[in-house]
Amino acid sequence: MSETKNPGEKTLSVHPTKTLTLKRGVEHGVVRQSFSHGRTKQVVVEKVKRRAVGDKPEAAAPAAPERAPAGGLRRPAGRGDAAPAAPSGKGAGAPASGPKPSGVILRTLTEEERAARAHALADARQREAEERRLAEEEARRRAEREARERAEREAAEARKREEEERRRQEEEAKKKAEQEAKKRFGEDEAKAKAGGLPLGVPPNVRVALEPEEEESKRPLRRGGGAGAARPAAAPKPSRGGGEKRRGRLTLVTALNADEERERSIASFRRRVQRMTGHRQVENKEKIAREVVIPETITIQELANRMAERAVDVVRLLMKQGHMAKSTDIIDADTAQLIAEEMGHTVRRVAESDVEEGLFDAPDDPSTLQPRPPVVTIMGHVDHGKTSLLDAIRSTNVVSGEAGGITQHIGAYQVTSPSGGKITFIDTPGHAAFTAMRARGARVTDIVVLVVAADDGVMPQTVEAIHHAKAAKVPIIVAINKIDKPDARPERVRTELLQHEVQVESLGGDVLDVEVSATKKLNLDRLLEAINLQAEILELKANPDRSAEGTVIEAKLDRGRGPVATVLVQRGTLKPGDIVVAGTQWGRVRALISDTGETVDKAGPSMPVEVLGFGGTPDPGDRLAVVENEARAREIAEYRERQKREKAAARATGMRGSLEQMMNQLKMAGRKEFPLVIKGDVQGSVEAITGALEKLSTNEVAARILYAGVGGITESDVTLAEASGAAIIGFNVRAHKEAREAAERAGVEIRYYNIIYDLVDDVKKAMSGLLAPTVRETTLGTAQVLEIFTVSKVGKVAGCRVLDGTVERGAHVRLIRDNVVIHEGKLSQLKRFKDDVREVLAGQECGMAFENYQDMRVGDVIECYRVETVQRSL
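Given the sequence above, the corresponding structure tokens read:
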């Protein structure tokens, strides 16, 4: 027997994970959906037949023979199994024919199997409960989503109705406007005749229209349907009120009876725009802004800051009579007037505001602590200032100075016998170091004026007194060299009275101490006087703040780079701080004390060498610690810009007054002596520059092309070669490459270690540029008695010498009626037909002039000698 499978039967299917189901008969179909713009979509539809409750099942087909299970086992018929159907024609009790089935009887389930089956049933029930819970939760979420979608649909429909109502109102308004426009412009409404064309239409046009009308009357068929007619799409109302014409304008469309000619939408819009274009536009509320105005600003930048148009700003300036462009620069006053005129507030700022708050910030009095005094030793050259300081410090600085004179400013800190610290500043006494002395007086608390007992008050002593009075600091007079036999301290005290310095012994308030640096006499009394004066001043400072100080000296060290000697005045300076001094800034790399030791910090009144600057700062520049590199760079750039502008103003010369213009005319033709100066420290270079500038006159001047610190380099030689200058090195030497370059280029390099010698040599060189002085020496006079004519010679004047002598080849003047007629030289001088060198007074002689023959009787001849004398500065 073979198994059969009928497609119409309900089949039994078993899935390993799904429940037992019966598949029903399914009919498939295709439905075409239509959308707007002619789009369609085919959808497959399944139709399931449902069986009525009262229907009887059809007769089952003969059952297929039972197939034996795998393994050859056959399950025997149990008690609950129905007996097989008896064949037709036999009784029910007749035994079945055929062989008796054979097989093994299955055993009953064990306890483990029952437990496993029970566990599986429990899992199935738990799974069904979980699925039921998930289905309920899904149904709840679906209900909420449907409610939300229903609310959104209702809101969308309401918005749609409002939009349709608005469009309808707009269409009605446009129709009314069109009707009014048609009435105004006198257009006749052309009405089409129903069912035909107007008269005058050619027959071929009528024939051509018939197929189109028939085609339009045919029903449209669906592409995939069973022949059902497709409903005609409803015409969409146009925005202008009628259906918008599409395609080309032809005779057919122009004479179509169903349409009427009317104005286009674009034409209507243009007309409405023309009618409403002249209405006054509502002015927006103006916003008043705070405008930041620097010292100078362009018109465009000012307009941007005010959020205005640059054209409006230019128009406002033109109303005020000022013609300008948007790129022109205006000053702060004009910009302020414009901004206030346009309703804005102004905040004026200056370029120098970058330095605001950099120095002199007030300290809380509770944070101030006592600090050591700063003492500056001043006096005339060779009065023993450095020797006195060496005696106090127990050092020997004098031996290190060239020529035995101090040419550098030095800062040192010593411990007094009472245990307190004192900071000393040693200044040069030479006249060229005036700026150094002025700097020392500005940063000091007390000035010790050293006067030699055997020399008395000298010019630099007077200058030191003036510096101290200008700085408003107290003076302590130290009368030095009292161990000498010719020492006269009373004379010094008396001479000081002439300069308003009255010591205590003469009834004044100035302390004076007689000391000897070489014998170390009364040094303790001098230190006691300094401590007493410091106690009176009550010197205090706040160490717990950002450091401030003053650059005492600066130099360029080949191994360490730029090094600045700084006196800290307030706060504490530490490595890592970002400092700015003058036009230079940098991060502190190291702090070195006056003894050469590296220190971790420098408090108030402590002198240290600071390493880490980007360049060499100028002596006298104030040093300050800033918060970041950006601020330091901004301050340095501003100062560099100011310095450059001042230098340019000095170079070009300000032609402000008539006197300045006359000075420029005088100096227009003067000669210049170009120089390149390199020194060991900035203060020495400054002193040399000032001393050389004083040598300049109206005829010759020292032109310093470059002055800096450090050794002489190749770039210095190149600069000197290009400008024909000489190079002067003060306490520095040229590098090997620079020496070779100078030898090749023929550039002279001069080395000096004493400023006296340098100034004297430059003075001699500048004197050589001066034009020599011409001096006339009168030799004698003669009078013409007769004129003779000699062949091959010309006219010869017979003269008598009145006074002096007349020499051959000397310069002569021919004077007639007290008027000089001719100046020249004597070509011949004869006496009795013999040539002579000179003729004495009272003798007669013959004279002939070079290139001149117009002599007359009675003329006076003056004979003189011309001498040139070399000038000096």
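The CA atoms of residues 195 and 417 lie 135 Å apart. Try to locate this feature in the token string yourself.
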